Amino acid sequence: xxxxxxxxxxxxxxxxxxxxxxxxxxxxxxxxxYWFVRFFExxxxxxxxxxYSRVYPSTAWSLHESCFMARxxxxxxxYGFRQDKGDLTVExxxxxxxxxxxxxxxxxxxxxxxxxxxxxxxxxxxSHLPRTLSKLRGGGHLRMLILGDSIANDTANSLFPxxxxxxxxxxxIALIHSVKGGAGCWFYEQDTELERYxxxxxxxxxxxxxxxxxxxSDAILNVINKTRLALPEVEFLVIxxxxxxxxxxxxxxxxxxxxxxxxARNAGRFAFxxxxxxxERYLASCARPFEWYLRDNIHFNDRGKQIIGRIMASFFxxxxxx
Length: 322
Prior knowledge:
- The chain is α/β, with parallel strands linked by helices and 322 residues long.
- It folds into two domains: 2-98, Jelly Rolls (Sandwich); 102-315, Rossmann fold.
- Helices cover 33% and strands 30% of the residues.
- It is built from ten helices and twelve strands.
- Strands 1, 2, 3, 4, 5, 6 and 7 form a seven-stranded antiparallel beta sheet that branches. Strands 9-8-10-11-12 form a five-stranded parallel beta sheet, with helices on both faces.
- Helix 8 (252-268) links the parallel strand 11 (235-239) and strand 12.
- Helix 3 (150-157) packs across helix 10 and helix 4 (160-167) runs parallel beside helix 10.
- The longest helix has 17 residues, at 252-268.
- The model has no long low-confidence stretch (mean pLDDT 93).
């Protein structure tokens, strides 16, 4: 199959919510392309939380493998390929249902070839996550919801809960991708959207992530406070910008926004993960350009998702770091 400056998408196939699948294919391409998976609800409506990654250029046949989790409300899915410039040739594309242990092995195999991440989330990070910490240490079920934009979706697509469950083997995480491209808390604070994207899912932990909050810290606090009115026991983790957007450092508005969020965490009773700083430390130690971890100007490829996943898993390690 040759895909030339267009896209191809296969027929929909059945999936089970929260189940894991493997996509494999062979390809050749002179220029980079993309593969993707889309998910659909029972009535056929597309779920916003898709999955995209890179097809790397290669003049010889290159074997690709990637694993993913079906969305919480998915009943069917489809996969496909996109090539914006030149030709992408694909053969032997296949989807297979797998166990979570197989997805975890794939993650480890991919990460083994990357410069290691040594995240430093610090002690005290669970001070506003006592229920989450109790489940990390004692076991149980944790409904975790990621709220944000396509960058937040990439964070969820890292499959980091599998790493967390390995460190906390008595814990079972149900991860809900609650995202919309370009949307931040200025969007989710609206009553109808808060109900649709957060409240009806009844999460135990809400992770607010992404780069589309328009530096509106008040909107983030509003989402937290309005959610607590409806779900008093829910806990929150706020993550600042997860990517550099090809800039060497945050601009003054972004720095001010980050500082406001970090300063508000005690009064707002939420945890905070400084993802930007974690990436700065990682890039300084790995001798790889940030673009090596991206599929386009701002979104992660499978390499970048693995680093994000390791940073997230380090944050949720049950043992406090000093």
